[in-house]
Amino acid sequence: MLLIDEPTFPGCRVWARPIGGLEMRDDKGFDFKVLCVAVGDPHQAHVERLDQVRPHRLVEIKHFFDTYKLLEDKEVDVVGWQEADRAREVLTADRETFEREQGVPSSGTV
Q1: In the chain, what is the straight-line distance between the N-terminal and C-terminal CA atoms, in Å?
Q2: Which of 75, 97, 105, 95 is nearest to 34 (CA)?
Q3: Which residues of 31-60 are buried (b: 16+ CB within 10 A; e: fewer)?
Q4: In whole angstroms, what separates CA 37 from the centre of its chain?
Q5: How many angstroms separate the CA atoms of 82 and 34, rounded?
Q6: pLDDT tens digit string along 53-84?
């Protein structure tokens, strides 16, 4: 997920900084939604941690993920917000898995 004040489009690549993530579980198991801010957005330049995001915005995001699979008659367990360090751990593990599965030499960075 990306917090940004300008519109984008599908497939748009944006340099972003992870600030936290929403830990969840669904019918397929562990699910983690990484929350980032756009690096080039001056309105988000100060945001480094979850506690710097308006609290109601975090409530809105959590509510969306609490309910987004209701029409599919599926249940989601939203565990809660995790800090940026946890988001980076998830991103690093995902990158390593991707590189291993694709046979790409590891870059070691996120």
Answers
A1: 16
A2: 95
A3: bbbbbbbbeebeebeebeebeebeeeebee
A4: 10
A5: 9
A6: 999 999 999 999 999 998 899 889 999 999 99
The string of DSSP codes covering 61-103 is HHHHHHHTTGGGT---EEEEEEEHHHHHHHHHHHHHHHHHHHT
pLDDT tens-digit map of 9-33: 999 999 999 999 999 998 889 999 9
Q: Whole-model pTM?
A: 0.86
Task: Identify the bridge partners of residue 38 per DSSP, sorted by sequence position.
Answer: 16
6 and 19 Cβ atoms separated by less than 8 Å: no
Give the residue among 16, 6, 24 at the shortest CA–CA distance from 88. 16
Residues 49, 84: contact at Cβ < 8 Å?
yes
